[in-house]
Design goal:
Keywords: Bacterial flagellum, Cell projection, Cilium, Flagellum. This protein is about 25% helix and about 35% strand. The chain is an alpha+beta fold. The protein has two domains: about 1-85 and about 225-265, no CATH class; about 95-220, no CATH class. The strands form seven sheets. Strands 7, 8, 11, 15, 16 and 17 form a six-stranded antiparallel β-sheet that branches.
Length: about 270
């Protein structure tokens, strides 16, 4: 009985966490460069049921010994949400016609590329959100004020919004090259640590930058890769699973109430 309480409770907790992650995905459906989190659930290790038998010892005293035989039947003890990992599928391009908006488009089979920005602590961070602007000093910055880096690891400073960006990230102003976007690359983006505001960080070394395997589109931003219809469906499924577990929990609670207050009553 008590094992049933724990099993049902673990299912409710897992479905609640899944609903929270799906809600976050849906709320960021209009956030440029947002990568939706995907969840995976895993069952706790199963318990192998055994039958307990009493066997007579082959001695004159005819003693008894208890033994057990496996029934080859498993009993699951619950489920948990193992991890939530972002999906790095390319989002749709959205035209903005703003010179400071960029979208990085990965070539098929070439890993994932990121814009490189500078964290206030001086370390590099990586983002797919190319919704940039110029600050009052002419530096190219993100919407939260982080500096966009060039291939030398320096800030990109421009005179005004009148500039062009080539497909390889080279920035031209008055037909003169002034900087080149530092596009960092990784073959396995799942090794990155997801932070807030669409930023990612590495657990160890910085990502290398490259001039190949991608195309920069000026005047566009990459939209979120959230499938709103599927996300809503998954949220309803998770909610119904939570309700089903809740009803089972109520049934266990009713049975326990009868066992305590009725079955054990002394007349």
């Amino acid at each position: 009985m008590f094992r049933g309480f724990y099993t049902v409770a673990s299912g409710m907790i897992a479905q609640q966490r899944k609903t929270e992650i799906l809600s976050n995905n849906l709320s960021n459906a209009n956030t440029p460069g947002f990568k939706a989190d995907q969840t995976s659930m895993r069952a706790f290790p199963e318990m192998l049921l055994q039958r307990i038998d009493n066997q007579q010892l082959p001695i004159k005293t005819e003693g008894m010994v208890t033994s057990s035989k496996p029934l080859n039947v498993g009993l699951n003890t619950g489920v948990y949400l193992q991890e939530a990992a972002p999906s790095f599928l390319q989002g749709d391009l959205q035209q903005t016609d703003q010179n400071t908006d960029f979208a990085v488009v990965d070539h098929e089979g070439n890993g994932t590329s990121f814009f490189t920005v500078q964290h206030p602590e001086g370390e590099f961070r990586y983002t797919r959100n190319g919704n940039f602007t110029l600050d009052h000093q002419g530096n190219l910055v993100t919407s939260s004020g982080l500096y966009v880096m060039d291939t030398n690891g320096d800030k990109i400073t421009l005179n005004n919004n009148d500039f062009d960006v080539l497909s390889d990230g080279t920035i031209l102003q008055n037909n003169v090259e002034v900087a080149s976007l530092r596009i960092s690359y990784t073959e396995n983006p799942l090794l990155l640590k997801k932070e807030g505001d669409g930023l990612y960080s590495t657990l160890e070394n910085e990502l290398p930058f490259t001039k190949d395997g991608y195309t920069i589109s000026q005047g566009y931003i990459e939209g979120a890769n959230v499938d709103e219809g599927r996300t809503m469906t998954d949220m309803l499924t998770a909610y119904r699973s939570f309700e089903a577990n809740q009803k089972v929990l109520q049934a266990y609670d009713t049975s326990m109430d009868k066992a305590v207050n009725e079955i054990g009553r002394v007349n």
